[in-house]
Amino acid sequence: MSTRPRLTPAIADVRRAVREVLVTASAHELVLVALSGGPDSLAMAAATAFEAPRAGLRAGAVIVDHGLQPGSADVAAAAARQAEAIGLDPVVVVPVSVGGQGGPEAAARDARYAAIARVAEETGASAVLLGHTLDDQAETVLLGLARGSGAASLQGMARVTGLYLRPLLGIRRSTTVRFCDDAGLEPWTDPQNLDEAYARVRVRTTVLPVIERELGPGIAEALARTADQLREDSDALDHFADELVEELAEHAEAGISLPVNGLAANPPALRQRIIRLVVSAEFGVSLSRAQTLEVARLVTDWHGQASVDLPGIRVKRLGHLLVFSAAPTHREP
Prior knowledge:
Layout: H1 9-22, E1 30-34, H2 39-54, E2 58-65, H3 72-85, E3 91-95, H4 104-123, E4 127-129, H5 134-147, H6 151-154, E5 160-161, E6 164-165, H7 173-183, H8 199-215, H9 219-248, E7 250-252, E8 255-259, H10 260-264, H11 268-283, H12 289-300, E9 308-310, E10 313-318, E11 321-326
Parallel strand pairs: 1-2, 1-4, 2-3, 4-6
Antiparallel strand pairs: 5-6, 7-8, 8-11, 9-10, 10-11
Helix pairs in contact: 1-2, 1-7, 2-7, 5-8, 5-9, 9-11, 11-12
């Protein structure tokens, strides 16, 4: 007698979402699922185990044990057993040491991604599937909005970021829970997902429900749509900025220059992107918005002011050119 789960709406939706991202991989390649054992990643793992062979792919799993909670090794081992039971191979469990730089969430994320990237390289995997859902996307956008982080943060998470694929960005968390119920899978509930010491948990358990109660349902979907639209607009502006940098930038012995008239002729969104792109490409420095606007004032509000000094960079207006150079170093006598 077959133990194959019946095809319920939840199972069909998650499988379809996974199928749509797997078409980007070439036949016979290995894809890995980043599996925590929670309902999102477990539903994605089961859907990948079903869809990958039909796409001519091999599918495995990578499980990161952060060691931050009692019994974390047992949780990782249980996730590995479920991965093997649904047909994923290889299944790699990686214990990591989490530092404290940038706070516990950021440190755990950095350790997790470093471990996943290392396993992907060692196994020759062409892609890693991450289980972020539409709810995660909505929470990310709302947190970015609250922090005033700008359009880059409001774009949320991309469906494809280099090695990483996020097939579930259009799937609600409730759907992955139903998937696990329908498929007879036993997901693990991370107690940190209920700890209101974390801002994301407060957004999930308090803020979004209040907004939906006061403004009506569909807020999470609206936030996710906003992220998609902003990402499309931003990608287009970045594309135009790349083309303009190729056209405008001139390399010099001291660094790189841009014509003031060329910058002034473009709208602020493009002008500022060009400035950030040149500084990032030439000096490996990411400018904040305040720093970018300070440089832009050499174009739009020029009154003969002195150069703008940024971390490791000096920007000076010389006639009709904006010249970017490495900041001079001063040696102690």
